[in-house]
Amino acid sequence: MIGIFHDVSQQCSRITTERYSTSFNSAIRLLHRDLRMPVYNLYGFVRFADEIVDTFHGYDKATLLEEFKKETWLAIERKISINPILHSFQLVVNQYNIEHELIEAFFASMESDLNKQAYDVNGYKQYIYGSAEVVGLMCLYVFCEGDKALYNSLKASAQALGAAFQKVNFLRDVKADYQQLKRTYFPGVDFNHFTPAMKEQIESDIANDFQNAYQGILRLPVKARFGVYVAYKYYLSLFKKIRRSQPQVLLQDRIRIPNYSKAFIVMRAGLRSQLNIL
C-alpha cells in the first residue's frame, strides 16, 4: 500500500507545479514520461520553500523555514515523510543520489531572503548559485539518469540556464521585489535611479548566460532535450520583451508572455525539433 502514498505525494508536487507555474508545467509535460514526475517533485519542494520566504507574511518565516529544512533532512535520511512534498522530494534525492551540498546551498539562499535586502557581487553570485543554479543541477541529475560523466560535462551549461532564468525573473519581478519585499538583488543598482545603462549591463550578463546554456541543451539526452529547449525559448522570449522595455516600465508592470505566444513557442520548437534544427 506504500505505493499509493508515493503516488499521492507525487501528485501533490504535480498539482503544486500546475497551480504555481503554467510555463514550467507546460515544459515538464514535454519531457519524456520517465522524467516528468521526478522534475515535478523537485519543483514542488523548491516552490514551497520559496513561498515561505516570499508570501508567508504575518507568520514566523524564520521558524517555518528552519522546520522545513529539518524535516527535509529527516525525510532524506529516513526515506519517508508524512509531508507529501518532502516525501516526493526525498524520493528523487535518494533515487538519483543528488548531492546534499546542492540542497544546503539552496537553503542558504532561502535563508538570506529573510535577512538580506541588498547584495554585493560575491553575495549575488552565491545567491544565484543557491537559488537557481543548484535547481538546474538537481534537474540535470534526473536528466542524466546516473551517467556521471555526462552530468559533469553539462554542469556549467545547466548552471548558466538556471542563472539566466533567475536573473530574468529578477528583472520581471523588480516591482514586487523592490517595492513590496524591499529587496535589491543586482549589486550596485539603485532602482530609484534605474538607468538604461544599468539595465543594459544586467541584460548583457543574462545574454551571456543564455548563450552558454544553449550549447548544453543541444547535448542533453533526447528524453530531456525538447522540454528544456521549450523552457529556454520561453524565457528567451520573455528576456527579449524585457530588453525592449524601458527601465521605468519594469518598475510599474510585470512583463508577461501571452498564452497565444506561449503556444506558438511550443509549436515552433516542436517543428524545429522534428527537423533536427534546434
Helix coverage percent of residues?
over 70%
The largest pleated sheet is described as:
none
* Proportion of residues in extended strands: under 5%
CATH fold node name: Farnesyl Diphosphate Synthase
Averaged pLDDT: 92
* Whole-angstrom Rg: 18 Å
**How many β-strand stretches?**
0
User: What is the global morphology?
Assistant: globular
H-E string: HHHHHHHHHHHHH
**Total domains, how many?**
1
Structural class: mainly alpha
Q: Helix segment count?
A: 13
Q: What is the element layout, followed by pairings?
A:
Elements: H1 2-20, H2 22-28, H3 33-55, H4 61-78, H5 84-96, H6 100-115, H7 121-144, H8 148-172, H9 174-180, H10 196-217, H11 222-243, H12 247-250, H13 259-274
Helix pairs in contact: 1-2, 1-3, 1-5, 2-11, 3-5, 3-6, 3-7, 4-5, 4-6, 6-7, 7-8, 8-10, 8-11, 10-11, 11-13
